[in-house]
Amino acid sequence: MPLVLQAADFKLAFPVDCTLGQDCIIQNYVDLDPGAGWKDHQCGFLSYDGHKGTDIRIRDYRAMADGVAVLAAADGVVLGIRNDMEDRGPDTTYEAYLKKYSGKECGNGVVLVHEKGFETQYCHLKKGSVAVKKGDRLGQGDVLGTIGLSGKTQFPHLHISVRWGKEVVDPFKGVCNDTATYLWKDEIGYTDTHLLKFGFADGPQTLDSIEQGLAPQVGADSPALVFWANVVGIKKGDTQEVIIRKPDGSFLVSNSQTIEKSKVNWLSYVGKKRPQGGWPRGVYTAVFSVERDGAPILEHETSLRID
Questions:
Q1: By the 8 A CB rule, do 129 and 189 touch?
Q2: CA 25, 166, 74: angle at the middle one, nearest 5?
Q3: Which residues constitute the domain of residue 155?
């Protein structure tokens, strides 16, 4: 029976206990480009070559430590699990971790078998969090475990793959996947650019430092005052602007740049070194914005008090 008919009554619930656009986002979709490039179901670039699932990303390591539940997307039976693989820690490089666990890219995870020949696979769960065992019969929404940092991943997220037999299925439908069957129970909107997180620090930052929540706080004697922003889905040609105002309202920084290359995961930071005598006390305000084709797509204002 054709997949479109098999899928008529098979619907998936969102598999993470989070609210899209607030404490989680979709960063990558199934790669629909048969060649060396990649494209998602809307012909966008939120994927990478050969990607076979949907990546639902949570905010950072702190959210992971608090525990974000992974849920069964549909009724099914547990085909297999892994629950004993270490999560990558802050002292282990991504490259060293992959070498140690070569061949276990999914990390800790669960595979469920569903009706009509479908399977779902849930990857990158936290060690020891998997709450089911092989043979368990589950209902849609049952807890499988929590999001971790195991397997081939550089940030905490759930990778969910949908298969029909041995065929990878994209559960979304769009411009580049318009003959597909939409498999989600509820409508999930497509947003190609997100302001994931932002803040102030006392110097330049890296993606790893902000993911771990290590950005130092700024005080009167800090060597620098820096505003940073982590954007998912920045595009070539976008214009990014950052304005930082001093407590008296005057400019500390006014910076604008045109993005030269599209990036799924983009970190930007601007700031100034400490003046003689230290930072004046009061409230510093940063406004971060991104324009695309002359129209604003992101804008956020935040503040910092130095006492």
A1: no
A2: 50
A3: 3-177
